[in-house]
Amino acid sequence: MNTKRIIIFYPTFAGGGITRNLENILNFFERKNIFTFLFSHNTKNLSANKNLNIIANNYKLFKKGNSLINIFSSTIDLIRFLIKNKKINLILSMQNHLPAIIVAKIFKKKIIIRNSEEIFSATKHADNKVTAYLVLFLKFLFYRLSDSIIAISIKSKSSLKKLGIKENKIRLIYNPFIKKILKKKNKTYRYGNEFNIISIGRLTKQKNFINLINVISDLQKEYPFINLIIIGNGPDFKILKALTKINSKISIFNWTKNIDKYYNKSHLFVLNSLYEGLPNILIEAVNKSIPCLSTDCSGAEDILLKSKGGFIVPIDDKFFLKKKIEFILKNYKTALKKSEIAKKKLNRFTQKNCESYYSIILDNS
User: Fold this and answer.
1) How far is CA 265 from CA 74, 185, 188, 291, in A?
2) How do residues 174-233 score in pLDDT, each as one tens digit?
């Protein structure tokens, strides 16, 4: 079998669930005899792969760490690489697509991009609105130059169409996140006993943990048996830690690989994000047999089957979030039934989706 060679451009991926997706794709490519050149900065958690060549920000004039510098550095590395390796004709951009598209067009290479967000929500809730709307305009100009675009959720695909991308250029491919679907765990809850809510994610504005803490604090006035555990790393850790110090029933912990001990004693998983692409952590919570409540961010309707497999509330709406948690508290059997429905459909997020990545590469080779 002839060895295919492709470039994966992923300069700023931050680990976590996305590392598992990337690793699953890379391992599948290895089995299919695809030799991959990965341009990135954070590759220490990737397992060994005989067909993987990592180019990790080798442009020495710049220090690593800042995301813009990582993007610039990886772009310079990519240009230098393509000057020397003219026979590689395909780039798969997993993130930060604009420089990858420009470089691909300059060097007359085919490019596939993976749109990992609902573009307009990400723009709306960005910290720097001026920069966000400039980037949105650039996406409008350049995304259409891609040869193919992978959308990872229904809303991700919809946002691309709103951007003016032709539908025949877009392919919906869910994350190849799950290695295996776990056996069902029987959860029970009797009203009035301790009710444990868990929320996991990067500690940033995007995940809206402050809003969640305020809602839980308000609920505890009437339901003092509610506990909240937040797990994650990120720039907002100190801010959130300070908020939890005044409430002994709200705890925050750094990310740990031994996460099952928290899942096992939890009755409800809450994702309170302002925007997402396809939240891997929500997939994981469903796989752990935990009833789930999510904002109507991108990916929630895919995973929770438009509320048939869980509960969905408007984004950044304290009133509806509070009311839905109250409902779950008093109607836990309903929550468990929804959880079972979602779990039965989890095969849509397994490693078999790597086949679709392979297929789109063949189509563009």
Assistant:
1) 42, 11, 10, 12
2) 999 999 999 988 889 999 999 999 999 999 999 999 999 999 999 999 999 999 999 999
Q: Enumerate residues 6+ apart whose C-beta is below 8 A from 181.
A: 287, 343, 346, 347, 350
* Cut 0.90: pTM above it: yes
Q: What is the CATH number of the domain that holds 309?
A: 3.40.50.2000
pLDDT in tens, 276-285: 999 999 999 9
How many separate domains does the chain show?
Answer: 2
Q: Is residue 61 assigned to a domain?
A: yes
Same domain, 217 and 146: no
Phi/psi of residue 91, each to 5°?
Answer: -115, 130
**Nearest-5° angle of CA 148, CA 153, CA 159?**
70
Q: With bands split at pLDDT 50, 70 and 90, how would you rate the model's confidence at 56?
A: confident
301 lies in the same domain as 290: yes
